[in-house]
Amino acid sequence: MKAPNHARYLNTEFVGAGWPVRPWDNNTLHKEHTVRYAKIYDQLQTDACYAGGLSRYAFDYGTHRDFGSGDHICYHGVMDIFHEPKPAAGFYKSQCSPAEEVVLEAGFHWAIDDSASHTWPLPICSNCDTIKCSIGNEGKWHQIIELKPERKQFPHLAYSPFLLTLPGGNDDWGDLRLDGYINGELKISKSFSGKGIDQQFHLSADDSELVADGSDATRVVFRVTDEYGAIRVSGWTCRLAEPAISRAIYALPYRL
Prior knowledge:
With 256 residues, the chain is α+β, with helices and mostly antiparallel strands. Helix content is 12%, strand content 27%.
């Protein structure tokens, strides 16, 4: 990013168009996607003449035939076309105070990868001050590494990403658990299956009630997850007949 040339320098587009990523792409691409955002926002803190930065692309979107990945979709967002987050969205989420929300988001997909060997280390986006990483097999967990925020690469961010490398390489493989600590107290924990298998199918709605005024609406999301509830991604699409979608929406209670 260019240095500011006046005291109200606002950058309104970066990363998205230059590094489009599909939700099911490998970790090499997702790592770079996440790290590029972190680097830009770190740079924005280095000079008071930067008025801020707007990356422009929150969501993927439909477009014309000259763009997209052969499907007329621009994959420029940190969230997909259905407003579901990609790993890079975790960076944005992690930049709030833990007093507002404790955040721990993996900047990668566990057990779904065809990345090059140089992909490690992988980013974890969190506003915790320590993350303890453990590998589990058949319900037995052992800690493999304790991480601190990566201040060397991102010295100006309030909450720098953490960088994970498996000390034992892929020889010590299994499920992954990330435990986030603040001032020595466990605040958040997330687990990811190492099996690489779709285990659960979830249906959820953004709202539990709709106002019966003829115009209120909500979003219904179908998710495939592992046994820990972590979202799994693939290139498949799900199409339902309109009556089935209508039944899912109209099953919500209406509030008069």
